[in-house]
Write a structure and sequence with these properties.
Layout: E1 2-4, H1 9-21, E2 26-28, E3 35-39, H2 43-53, E4 62-64, H3 68-74, H4 80-89, E5 94-99, H5 106-109, E6 114-118, H6 123-132, E7 136-137, H7 152-159, E8 165-168, E9 179-182, E10 189-192, H8 198-205, E11 238-242, H9 245-261, E12 266-270, E13 282-285, H10 292-309, E14 313-317, H11 326-336, E15 341-343
Parallel strand pairs: 1-8, 2-8, 4-6, 5-9, 11-14, 11-15, 12-13, 12-14
Antiparallel strand pairs: 2-3, 3-7, 4-7, 5-6, 9-10
Helix pairs in contact: 1-6, 10-11
The structure holds threonylcarbamoyladenylate and magnesium ion.
Threonylcarbamoyladenylate binds near residues 59, 116, 140 and 224.
Length: about 350
Amino acid sequence: MLVRIMDNPEQALEQGAELLRAGKLVAFPTETVYGLGANAWDPEAVASIFLAKGRPADNPLIVHVASMAMVDELAREIPQHAKLLMQAFWPGPISLVLPRRPRVPDITTAGLDTVAIRWPNHPVATALIERAAVPIAAPSANRSGRPSPTTAQHVWDDLGRGVDLIIDAGMAAIGLESTVVDVSGPQPALLRPGAVTLEELRQVVGPLLVPPQLQEQASGEVRSPGMKYTHYAPRAPLHLYLGEEQAIVTAMALQAKQLTEQGERVGVLTFDEFLGSFPQLTVLSLGSRRDLSQAAARLYRLLRQFDEQQVDIILAQGVKSDAGIGMALLNRLSKASGYRLIWV
Ligand code: TXA
Ligand code: MG
């Protein structure tokens, strides 16, 4: 069932909390993307998350909390780096990998000795966790292999009646999943870039390990199990264009023209400023090139639209990864392309 939070907040939260305590699945909004929640202490409830999503059992979940008392119940130890990051960014779009207590069910952490914890910055998410009074394990509420949901409708489209309750609170503000940082070892390591940027992390904890995948080099040892899965890939192959902006647009326009002449249905992912370069094509805009936060908020919705419009190929304009949410945006675009990167 899908309920809109505005219609009756009290009832939606109470019903959600009750279902969670009873071992059911509740999809809820966060500031990053919608999550598919279950009581983190309840192995059977957590098993039903994996089943509903079609998620491989060796990919661990993020546990969502709304108090430091909940963190203490989950984590065996809170290293100094973790404390600093919590003070700086919680509640917010960052998940911290910490040594776990034995009480945390194996299925929640995929058998790892660590647990990823996040205190989300969304009033509905925190109210729901507080009322359920248990930590909530919640991956993104998409079917495995689809883009993360940024609206309740996306959750419904992917999971429908496989979820006991979907709470609709409108579009997710950030639109990309949280930054994940492993603080369980001597050196903090960035496992997934997000809205909390590398620069912001460095300011708080100093130097960080950044795995080669994120530096777009040959892949090394896999530290975040999530990294080894090709996440979302659109039905049509997506070619990601990188390099100097104007040169990219020229190359994309030329390629689009040639493919169209060969009878291909071409989809183009670009910015408002360049819409004029792609006449008579299926063009979707990430917004102004000057607003990468807006681009992040729109990305997953637009990728879903390309699937609906049944294009044969997608030409996507890359972004600079050096500032703000650019690194996260480029990371998700690269994944969606299956690393088909075209350097212009
Ligand atoms: O923004 C988000 O993080 C959203 C919302 C719902 O909070 N959740 C989310 O969950 O994106 P999910 O399951 O789609 O991604 C969790 C990521 C995966 O890459 C997983 O491998 C990694 O976190 N992860 C979870 N526990 C871990 C652990 N103990 N060690 C290393 N990586 C872990
Ligand atoms: Mg996910």
